Amino acid sequence: MRRVAYVLSAAGQGFWRNPVMSLASTFTVTLMLLLFAFFLTTDRGLQAAVGVLESKVEIALFIDDNAKVSEVLALKARIEADPAVSRVDYVTKEQALKRLQDIADRRKDFVLANIDGNPLPASLEVKLSDARQAKRFGDELRAEVGGGVIADVIDNPQVVDQLLTITRVLSVGGVAILAMMLFVALFVIVNTIRIAVHARRDEIEIMQLVGASDAFVRWPFILEGMLVGTLGAVVALSIVFAAAGPVTGAMLDFLVTLPISLGPEFAFQLAASVLGVALLVGAGGATLSVRAHLAK
Amino acid sequence: MRRVAYVLSAAGQGFWRNPVMSLASTFTVTLMLLLFAFFLTTDRGLQAAVGVLESKVEIALFIDDNAKVSEVLALKARIEADPAVSRVDYVTKEQALKRLQDIADRRKDFVLANIDGNPLPASLEVKLSDARQAKRFGDELRAEVGGGVIADVIDNPQVVDQLLTITRVLSVGGVAILAMMLFVALFVIVNTIRIAVHARRDEIEIMQLVGASDAFVRWPFILEGMLVGTLGAVVALSIVFAAAGPVTGAMLDFLVTLPISLGPEFAFQLAASVLGVALLVGAGGATLSVRAHLAK
Amino acid sequence: MIALDDVSKRYPNGTFALRDVDLRIDSGDFIFLVGASGAGKSTLIRLLIREELATTGRVVVDGEDVGRMPRSRVHRLRRKVGVVFQDFKLLPRKTVAENVAFALIVTGHEGRLVREETERALSLVGLTARRDHFPSQLSGGEQQRTAIARALVNRPRILIADEPTGNLDPVTSWEIIKLLTRINDLGTTLVMATHNAEIVNALRRRVVHLDHGMVVRDEREGLYAA
Amino acid sequence: MIALDDVSKRYPNGTFALRDVDLRIDSGDFIFLVGASGAGKSTLIRLLIREELATTGRVVVDGEDVGRMPRSRVHRLRRKVGVVFQDFKLLPRKTVAENVAFALIVTGHEGRLVREETERALSLVGLTARRDHFPSQLSGGEQQRTAIARALVNRPRILIADEPTGNLDPVTSWEIIKLLTRINDLGTTLVMATHNAEIVNALRRRVVHLDHGMVVRDEREGLYAA
Ligand SMILES: Nc1ncnc2c1ncn2[C@@H]1O[C@H](COP(=O)(O)OP(=O)(O)OP(=O)(O)O)[C@@H](O)[C@H]1O
Ligand SMILES: Nc1ncnc2c1ncn2[C@@H]1O[C@H](COP(=O)(O)OP(=O)(O)OP(=O)(O)O)[C@@H](O)[C@H]1O
Ligand SMILES: [Mg+2]
Ligand SMILES: [Mg+2]
C-alpha cells in the first residue's frame, strides 16, 4: 500500500516539479489526440456517407411478359436471400408505363407517341446493400436472361460509377489516413515522453546509484507518462465534445443531401479509444525511454 | 567571419553532442512535416477532383422551334459571356433525335413509337465552370422561358447535386484540415524544440554567468533549431518524393474516372513550403524557448 | 569485506585511472584514500559499487564478485554500501528530507520509520532547519551534508565517503569526522577519500596512497604524506 | 572597486542569507571570505555578478550599481569579473579546452589568440593533458581546475573564487594559491571564499568573517579564526 502511495506521489512530483516539460508534453499529447479523434470521427462519417451512397445502387431486372407470377415471386424470393441485397421492389407493367409518362411530362426531349397496349415490361428493382457486389450480382442474373423469366438486366448508369469511385477512395483513403495518423500520433507522443525522460537521465542514474531497483525507478516514470497521457486525453476529449454540437449542426446544414450523424454510442467509443491510446502510449513511451536508460 | 564560424560550430556541437534529444526532435519534425506535405498534396488533389467534378455540371436550354437562328446565336454569345460558363454546345433537332434513338436502343424501358417528323427541340448545352452558380444561372434563364427563344430550362438531376455536396465538403473540409494540420504541426515542432531547449536551461544559465550576451547565447540555439528543421524537411521530402511515383501510379489505377495528377510545379511548391515551414518553425521555436529562459 | 585483486581501469577514451591495484579491507576497517587530484580515488570507489566496471582484475565486496554479478543484483549491492559522492548527486526535484528518505524507501522501508530515521540523520549533520529546501536552495556545504545524511541514513555495513569535507568549514568538518568515527566504532567499514591532511594526520588510521592509479603506500596508522 | 552598502539578501523561500552587510574592497585587494557552512559567502558572491539581486541595499562593482544596471549590460559586468564557482558550472557538452576558450570567445576574441591564451591557462592549472576531455570525464579536482582556468583566462580585473581548493590535494592547492597571489600582485582584485584555514593563516591577508549573514570580523592580515 505505502509502496503504491510512494509511486503515486513520486509520479506527481515528477510532473509538478518540472512544469515546463510536463505541460509541453501534455500539450503535444493533447494535440495528437485531437488529431486522432478528428480522424476517427471523420472516418466514421465517411463510412456512414459511403453507406448512404452505396445504398442507392440499383439493378433493374425486366421480366419476360410470358413469365408466370409464381416464377417471378420465386425469383424475387431468391434475390432477397442474397446477402448483398437490401431491398427488392416489384414494378408492374402499369406502374412502369405511368413512370414513363411522368418522365415524358417532365422532360421535353422525350415525346411519347400514341401507344397501343403497354409495350413496357414489368421489372424487379433491386437495391444492393453492398455496392461492390453489383457486378457479380448483375453478371449472375444476366446469365439467366432468355431463360423465360428475366428479359434483361440493367445496371445503374455511369454517374453512380463516379459516386462509387469517390466513396471508395474516401473510405480506403480514410482508413489509410487513420492508420497513418495513429502511427504519427503514437510516435510523436512516444518521442515527446522520450525527450522528457532523457532530460532526466541524471536523476535516473542517481536513483540507481542509491540502490533503487529498475522497477522502483521505472514505475514513477511510467505513471508520470500515464498522467501526461490522461491529462492530454481529458483536455482533447473536452475540446472534442465541446465542439461536437456546433460542428454537427454546421455539418447537417451543409450536408442536407447526406444527413449523417454519429450517436452517443460512437461518443463513448471515441472517448474510450482516445483514453486507451493515451494511457497506452503514455505508459509505453515512458517504459521504453526509461528502459533505454536503465539498460546502460 | 570567425563569429559566424563559432556560431555554426556551436550549433553543430549542440546537435551532435546530444544525439538522443536531437534525433528524437528531428524525427518528430520529420513526421509532422510528412503530415503537412501529405495534407498539402491531398488538398491539391481534392481541389483538382472538385474541378473535374464541377466541370460536369450542365444545364440544357431547349430552343423554341420558331426561334430565329440569329436569336439563338445571340443567346449563345450572351451565355458564353457569363463568367460562370465554361462551354456552350449547340445541339440541333437532328442530333437530339439521334441521341434519343441511341438511348432507346440501349435502354429497354424506353420504346419509341413511330415518330412523324422530329418532335424534339434543338438545345444549348451549357457547361459551368463554377457549379455553385448553377442555381442563379438556371433561374435567370428560366425567367426568359416563353419569350420566344427559350422553350425550357433543365438542370442536371439530383445525382449531380450529391456529387456537388461531396466535393464541396471535401474542398471546404480539405482547407480546414490543412489549416488544422499546419497549426498542429507547427505547435508540436515548437513544443519539441522547447522541451529540448528547456532540458538545457542549465547550459544557458552557465553561458550567461560567464559573460555571454543574450544574442551570443541565442544564436547557436536558433541555428540548431534550424538544423533540426532542415534535417526534418530533407528526410520528409525524400520520403515524399520516393513515395510519389508508386502512390501516383496506384491512385491513377484507382481513380480511373477521376484522373488527377500533380505536376513538377507543385513538387517545387511543396518542397519550398515544407522547407520554409521547417526553417521558420525551427528557428522560431528555438528563439521562443531560449528567450523564455533568457528573460529570467 | 572488500578485496581488489590486480585491478586496472582504463576509461573508454584511453585514460588509465587505475593500474594493478591490490587492496584488502577488512570488516570494521577505517581507511583513508589519499593522492593527488586525478590519482584514481573516485574511480576506485566507482568500481566498488559498480558505477564502472574494472577493465581487468576482480573486485569483491561482501563476498560477491562485483564485476560478475548479474545486473539485477546490483541494486542490492548498492543498498549495502552508503556512498557520499564527491559531486553529491542529489535528486534536484526532491527536497533535502526527500533525498535522505529516498535511500530508506528504496530498501522497502515505510512510514514512521522512514520519517524518524530521516530526521535523525538530518539532525546528525545539522540540517533539520533545511529539511524542505531543494538542493538548488542550499549552500555548497549544506548539499554536502545532505549527501552525507543520505549515505548513513539506512545504517549501511560499508560507508564510502569521497571528499566529504571539501565544502565544509573546519568546525563542521570535525563534527562530521567525529560522526563517521563513531559509526565506524559501531562496526561499519569506512573508506574515505580525502585531501584533508589535518584530519588524516590527527586520526592516524590506515592510509592508502594512490599515485597515477597505483598504490604507492599502504600504512596502518599512517600520515597524509609519507 | 567593490562596495556593499547595507546589503541584505532574503531568498524567496524566506531564508535570510545576508543581513546589513557593509563592505568596501579596493582595487588590487586580496580578501578571504570565511565563515561556517551556510554563512552567506556564496550569496555575497552571487550579488557581485548579479546572479541574484540584493533585497535591500546597494552593490557597486567598478563604479556601477549592479542592482540598477539594465539587463542588457549585465554581460559586460560579468566579463570584467572572473568567477570560480563552488559547483564549477562547466558546460557539459564542451571539452575542457572549449570551456576555457568560451570565456574568451564571449568577449569577442578570436582565432589564434583564443588558442594561445587557452593553452596558457590550461598549463597554468596543469590540465594540458586533459584538454579534450568532457567534464564528465574529469576527476573532481580536474573539474575545479578547469573552472579556475576559465575564470582567469581573459585576465579579468576582478577575480572571485568560491572554495577553489575544496577538491584539490594540498600540493595542487598551494600551486593554485601561488598562481592567484601572482595574479593579484599584477593588480587584479581577488576575493576568495574558503574553508582552508591553513592557507588563510599562512598568507595573512585581509579576512572578512561572515556568521549567519552578518560580517562579524574584518581584519587586515587576519587569521582564519579570531
Ligand atoms: N536559492 C536559495 N534559496 C533559498 N535559500 C538559499 C538559496 N541559496 C542559498 N540559500 C540559503 O542561504 C544561506 C547562505 O547560503 P550560501 O550558499 O551563501 O552559504 P555559504 O556561506 O556559501 O556556505 P558554504 O560554505 O556551505 O558554501 C544558506 O543557509 C542556504 O540554505
Ligand atoms: N569517465 C571518464 N572518462 C575518462 N577519463 C576519466 C573519467 N573519469 C575519470 N577519468 C580520468 O581518470 C583519472 C582518475 O580520475 P578520478 O576521478 O578517479 O581521480 P581522483 O583521484 O578522484 O581525483 P580528485 O581528487 O581530483 O577527485 C583522471 O585523470 C580523470 O581525468
Ligand atoms: Mg575524485
Ligand atoms: Mg558556498
Global Rg of chain A: 31 Å
The description of the largest β-sheet of chain C is: 6 strands, mixed
Shape of chain C: globular
Count the DSSP helices of chain C.
7
Low-confidence stretches of chain A: 106-111, 255-259
Query: How many strands of chain C?
Result: 10
Can you describe this structure?
- The complex is a heterotetramer, with 2 copies of chain A (296 residues) and 2 copies of chain C (226 residues).
- With 296 residues, chain A is an alpha+beta fold.
- Chain A has 2 domains: 2-52 and 161-294, no CATH class; 58-155, Alpha-Beta Plaits (2-Layer Sandwich), CATH 3.30.70.3040.
- Chain A is 71% helix and 8% strand.
- Chain A is built from 9 helices and 4 strands.
- Chain A has a 4-stranded antiparallel β-sheet with strand order 2-3-1-4.
- The longest helix of chain A has 41 residues, at 158-198.
- Chain A is rod-shaped and about 100 Å long.
- The two termini of chain A are 30 Å apart.
- Chain C is an alpha/beta fold.
- Chain C has a domain at 2-89 and 157-219: Rossmann fold.
- Chain C has a 6-stranded mixed β-sheet with strand order 6-7-8-3-9-10, sandwiched between helices. In chain C, strands 2-1-4-5 form a 4-stranded antiparallel β-sheet, with helices on one face.
- Chain C is globular.
- Chain C starts with a strand and ends in a 7-residue tail after the last strand.
- At the A-B interface, helix 2, strand 4 and helix 6 of A face helix 2, strand 4 and helix 6 of B.
- One magnesium ion binds next to helix 1 of chain D.
- One adenosine-5'-triphosphate (ATP) sits between chains C (11, 13, 15, 17, 35, 37-43, 86) and D (130, 133, 136-142, 167).
